[in-house]
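Researcher: We plan to redesign the surface later, but first we want a full-length starting point. C-alpha cells attached.
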C-alpha cells in the first residue's frame, strides 16, 4: 500500500478552515521593514514594536526553514494584539507555507479524541512541496469531429492535432467532447491536454489562423503553433499538507471528506506509511518538507493531556513551529489542581520562547481606532475619534473598537453620515464595558445565578498593567 500513496487531487486546498476574520481584517502583515524593524504604522499594525519584531525574527527563520519543532508563546493582557500579531505572521508567510489557526477549545468539540485533533492540526501545518512530471499533449487543433448516435445519448468523435512537425488523430469519448465544448475549443486553437487527468486548457489561437476570423475579440491571445512532438513532459511543483495526503489516502474517508470537513480519525499505520513514503520522496529529491506554523489561540484552555502531547509532538521529526497565545496570568492547568504561569505546565514553558505584549499608549489606540473605522467604512468626527481613543484607554481597546459599529447605527438613525460624540455616548450607554458590567453584577447580586468558587475570579486574567 505504501507503494502507491496518492497526492491527487493536486489542485485541492483544505477549504474547511477558511474563514473571514472580521476583527483582524485590517491586518495585512507585521509592518516590518527589510531589517525587521517595526514601522510606526504599516500593514494595519500600530505600536507593540518589540513583540512585532520578535515575531518577525521567528518568521524569518520559518521562511528559511531553520526553525521547526519549537514553541512560541505570545502572552499579555486582553486586547493587546496577540491574535492580531499571529494574523500578521500568517499574512507574511509565503503562499505555500502552511499556517493553521486553531482555538484551544476546538480540540474538545470535534468528534474525535483530543490527541487526534491535535495530530491533524500538526499535520495540516506541514507542507510537502512535490515536484512531479506530467505528460501533456500540446498542439494546434486542426479539426474536431463529433458523431452522435441516433438517440443522441452517446457521443464519439475524433480530434486532429498538429505541431509544425507532425499531425495525429485522437479518438474522443463523450467526457472529452463535453470538455472541448465547455472550453469552446475551435479549429485553430492551441490546446494542452493533461494526460493523467484529461483536463484541457486553451493556450491561445494559432498565429497561422490570425487572418481567418475578423470577428475576434480584442482579448484573443495569439500563440505559435508548437513544434516537435505532440506529447511533452513538464515539471510542476505544488504543495499539499501531510494531513491532505492522509485524508486522500484514507480508504474509509476519501478526498471528498476534505471538503465536508468530516475527516474522522485516521489510522496511525496509514500515517506511518505516508511518513515513510514522503521520506523516500525526499531522498529521491522529488519532495521537500515545508514546516509551517500552527497557531493555538487561548492555549490555557488545553488540558494536561494535550500539553503532554504537545511536548512529545514538538520533538517529532515532522513538527511545525507552534505559536501559542494566552491572556492568563498564574492560573490552574486544566485537568490538574496545580497552578502555573499562563496555565501551561513548567516543562512545556521551559522549551518555549515567550513574546510579551503590553498596554497601548492613547496615541496608539487612536491610530488603531482610526484604521478600524476606515476598515468598517465609518466616518468619525475628530472629537468622536478622540472620545473613542480615550474610552479605549480607560476601558479596553476592544471595547472602543466594538463601539464603532453601534455608534454608526445611532448616527444613521439621525440621518448623519458622520459619527459624532453624541452617537458614541449613546452607544456607550447601551453597551456596558467590563467594569460597568462587573459593577452591575455586584449590584444585582442575589438576583442572578452565580458561582462562588475562588478560581473563576477575574484575578487570573492578566490585569491591564501586569507585564509578563
Ligand atoms: N498593534 C495593533 N495594530 C492594529 N490593530 C491591533 C493591534 N493590536 C490589536 N489590534 C486590534 O485590536 C483588536 C483586539 O486585539 P486582539 O484580538 O489581537 O487582542 P488579543 O491580545 O488577542 O486579546 P485576547 O487576550 O482577549 O484574545 C483586534 O481587532 C485587533 O485586530
Ligand atoms: Mg486573542
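Model: Full-length starting sequence:
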Amino acid at each position: 500500500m505504501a507503494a502507491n500513496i496518492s497526492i491527487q487531487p493536486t489542485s485541492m486546498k483544505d477549504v474547511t478552515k477558511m474563514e473571514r476574520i472580521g476583527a483582524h481584517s485590517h491586518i495585512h502583515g507585521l509592518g516590518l521593514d527589510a531589517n525587521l524593524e517595526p514601522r510606526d504604522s504599516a500593514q494595519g499594525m500600530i505600536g507593540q514594536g518589540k513583540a512585532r519584531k520578535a515575531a518577525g525574527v521567528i518568521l524569518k527563520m520559518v521562511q528559511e526553514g531553520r526553525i521547526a519543532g519549537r514553541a512560541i508563546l505570545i502572552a499579555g493582557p486582553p486586547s493587546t494584539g496577540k491574535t492580531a500579531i499571529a494574523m500578521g505572521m500568517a499574512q507574511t508567510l509565503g503562499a505555500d507555507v502552511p499556517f493553521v489557526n486553531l482555538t484551544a477549545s476546538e480540540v474538545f468539540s470535534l468528534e474525535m479524541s483530543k490527541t487526534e485533533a491535535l495530530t491533524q492540526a500538526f499535520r495540516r501545518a506541514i507542507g510537502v512541496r512535490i515536484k512531479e512530471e506530467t505528460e501533456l499533449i500540446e498542439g494546434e487543433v486542426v479539426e474536431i469531429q463529433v458523431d452522435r448516435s441516433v438517440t443522441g445519448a452517446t457521443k464519439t468523435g475524433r480530434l486532429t492535432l498538429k505541431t509544425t512537425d507532425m499531425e495525429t488523430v485522437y479518438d474522443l469519448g463523450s467526457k472529452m467532447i463535453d470538455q472541448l465544448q465547455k472550453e469552446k475549443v475551435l479549429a485553430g486553437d492551441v490546446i494542452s491536454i493533461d494526460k493523467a487527468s484529461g483536463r484541457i486548457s486553451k493556450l491561445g489561437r494559432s498565429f497561422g489562423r490570425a487572418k481567418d476570423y475578423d470577428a475576434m475579440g480584442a482579448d484573443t491571445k495569439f500563440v505559435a503553433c508548437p513544434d516537435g512532438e505532440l506529447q511533452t513532459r513538464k515539471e510542476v511543483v505544488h504543495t499539499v499538507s501531510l494531513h491532505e495526503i492522509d485524508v486522500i489516502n484514507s480508504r474509509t474517508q476519501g478526498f471528498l471528506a476534505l471538503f465536508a470537513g468530516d475527516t474522522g480519525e485516521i489510522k496511525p499505520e496509514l500515517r506511518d506509511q505516508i511518513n515513510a513514503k514522503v521520506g523516500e520522496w525526499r531522498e529521491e529529491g522529488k519532495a521537500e518538507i515545508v514546516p509551517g506554523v500552527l497557531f493555538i489561540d487561548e492555549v490555557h484552555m488545553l488540558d494536561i493531556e494535550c500539553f503532554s502531547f504537545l511536548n512529545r509532538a514538538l520533538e517529532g521529526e515532522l513538527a511545525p513551529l507552534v505559536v501559542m497565545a494566552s491572556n492568563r496570568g498564574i492560573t490552574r492547568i486544566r485537568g490538574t489542581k496545580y497552578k502555573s504561569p499562563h496555565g501551561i505546565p513548567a516543562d512545556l514553558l521551559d522549551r518555549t520562547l515567550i513574546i510579551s505584549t503590553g498596554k497601548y499608549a492613547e496615541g496608539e489606540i487612536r491610530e488603531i481606532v482610526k484604521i478600524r473605522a476606515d476598515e468598517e467604512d465609518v466616518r468619525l468626527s475628530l472629537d468622536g475619534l478622540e472620545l473613542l481613543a480615550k474610552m479605549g484607554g480607560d476601558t479596553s481597546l476592544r471595547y472602543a473598537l466594538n463601539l464603532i459599529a453601534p455608534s454608526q447605527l445611532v448616527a444613521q438613525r439621525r440621518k448623519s453620515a458622520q459619527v459624532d460624540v453624541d452617537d458614541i455616548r449613546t452607544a456607550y450607554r447601551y453597551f456596558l464595558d467590563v467594569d460597568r458590567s462587573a459593577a452591575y453584577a455586584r449590584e444585582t447580586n442575589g438576583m442572578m445565578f452565580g458561582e462562588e468558587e475562588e478560581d473563576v475570579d477575574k484575578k487570573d486574567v492578566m490585569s491591564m498593567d501586569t507585564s509578563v
